[in-house]
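yo

u said u wanted the structure for the complex thing, so here. seqs first:
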Amino acid sequence: MAKATVLRKAQFNAAHRLFRKEWTDAQNLEVFGPCSHPHYHGHNYQLWVILHGVIHEQTGYVYDLRKLKQLIEEEVMEPFDHRNLNLDTQEFRELNPTAENIARVIWGRLRKRIGPEFGLQVRLFETERNVVEYSGE
Amino acid sequence: MAKATVLRKAQFNAAHRLFRKEWTDAQNLEVFGPCSHPHYHGHNYQLWVILHGVIHEQTGYVYDLRKLKQLIEEEVMEPFDHRNLNLDTQEFRELNPTAENIARVIWGRLRKRIGPEFGLQVRLFETERNVVEYSGE
Amino acid sequence: MAKATVLRKAQFNAAHRLFRKEWTDAQNLEVFGPCSHPHYHGHNYQLWVILHGVIHEQTGYVYDLRKLKQLIEEEVMEPFDHRNLNLDTQEFRELNPTAENIARVIWGRLRKRIGPEFGLQVRLFETERNVVEYSGE
Amino acid sequence: MAKATVLRKAQFNAAHRLFRKEWTDAQNLEVFGPCSHPHYHGHNYQLWVILHGVIHEQTGYVYDLRKLKQLIEEEVMEPFDHRNLNLDTQEFRELNPTAENIARVIWGRLRKRIGPEFGLQVRLFETERNVVEYSGE
Amino acid sequence: MAKATVLRKAQFNAAHRLFRKEWTDAQNLEVFGPCSHPHYHGHNYQLWVILHGVIHEQTGYVYDLRKLKQLIEEEVMEPFDHRNLNLDTQEFRELNPTAENIARVIWGRLRKRIGPEFGLQVRLFETERNVVEYSGE
Amino acid sequence: MAKATVLRKAQFNAAHRLFRKEWTDAQNLEVFGPCSHPHYHGHNYQLWVILHGVIHEQTGYVYDLRKLKQLIEEEVMEPFDHRNLNLDTQEFRELNPTAENIARVIWGRLRKRIGPEFGLQVRLFETERNVVEYSGE
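structre next:
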């Protein structure tokens, strides 16, 4: 009953803007800097989905990565790729699309589709230098 | 009078949309695919600026890369970083902001600031897998 | 009539072996080292396909990269991905599948499908440290 | 008695095939997809070996990475590099060489050579997008 | 009160030498190899600073990464970048500047500036293949 | 008589300092910035050696990369790795060790060892963002 961790990477390209609508422009600029710019900017978000579970005796797999790729396709690529996160998604109408919150939302979407016998962690690269992780804590 | 090539990298994060306003949505979708989505999407554009010239006898430099960094700051980062290319820039009001055209525009901006004794080439990564180069040809 | 270069990357995973059947094992080992091992070894081949041509006035594209992706799918991924180059392909029954020859074969396959108005170059990474380029010269 | 973690990377190039011999070809294809292809395919496996232990007062090292490199040479490169995992190794005659199982086998080989005062973890990249980790759990 | 992890990367270029002054040259060469060479050598040290904490309800941030960048500027770049670690810093006058000890020193500098409500970990790449982590253990 | 290009990568870690001894410290600081710091700093220099030539009919090789690796070992790693370029090498006693000059010196060393039937180019990464190329022009 050996356990292992498997990771699968994906990438989606999206526009977003960080701001709180009840704040003034000056407040938003102070807190969010150029990320608050009204006409949006964008990123190549690189996503790692990380599962922890038992290595299956017969297949030698923890999880079929082709299935995981399909799940990521449905739960992440479909709603977020080539989209404006603020305008085109239900989740970020009110919630600020920071990397932390995007990771949390993706984790929640995947958690519903992956059995409870697997640990789940999401790592999101907003740029090469800014990275976040969320694991349901 | 030995000659060498020097490269300097930078990155800017921007939103854009590919479409022609005189075309129907269906035409735009057929030609530009999800890149034509009306609410924009975005990228971490990675830029390489490439200069070719004589190695200066005294300094051993072809071009002071700190000066080149400053030029890139003024001519690329300032107008394009954390911006919407279609809405926030003069150049892409009419011109489609494909990677090819972005590279051409950046080349034109830098060409004016760099002496004619230097060859100039621009390489632009829109994603890790899609890359363009422009050298004034 | 500005011209630019566009690159598209892909990856295929294949097994191969370097040897000449008319040579002894000792000769093959001397020339090809561990690459001559009889039971094959393998690589994640990373491929860059590089086109040079005119930027189309209306679209701003040199070449539709989605079409190029489709071409690579048909001419490279289909015949070579998850295959044994020596045993499963027509081209390498007699020809030694060195990185140089693989690049040359891929170039030949793509050259037939891409109009003569485009320059074509193929870059192939056999490992992170060993890379070849072929441009029909 | 401060503790730290040290990582050392290596790469080996190998051929493999995923299948169970008691299954039909159709079953193998369904479960393992193109990885079940009979003539093998291959990968550049990138390996990270990760040790956790006390920073030695005199040297400032957790573990001499030149020694670790030597261990990896003997226990991983020697048996697996430029080999066919299914045909050329004792471990994968019966065991399916999935990334999970390869990581587990490498961990077992290294665990015997590294003192129990060190924590040991193995991370294995089969491709840039498929990664596994094993830590003896 | 969801928690997440955020990472910020930086790079500094420094010279160093590994040796103990009470040892002979032969002893130092045996233990530290070419790293003990008397005239120093150097590295592009890549640094990841990793914070763990609560996602702030209003901003959606765990920690403002622009502030973290500023902290890294003051506590790491200022004292270490373009310096000789052995000669130009207080910390490594007596302490051997191994990657482990550099990570420990950087962790100590940052720990004083970052509130106790945040977990802190430092990852340091001395080269692409040699990496260490320190988390105050 | 098809021709192709082959590349081989290597890395060396060295200390250096940029300055002209006949200039004042203030002059050196103005021209070379923190690179002029008297106690040296250092880099992981990443080197690409690029050869252009005929694909050999029998072997399918342009150049045996194991031989090229050996040449790089003798002409680059041996004299420069884990060294202080200013103090430990003949070439940079008088010549400023800028990336341009280092590339030129490496090119000259390799040119003597590689037959005139091969084109030769050297690419040198001083950091991830600063790169130079030299080809004997």
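The two ends of chain F are 26 Å apart (CA to CA). The longest helix of chain F spans residues 65-80.
cya
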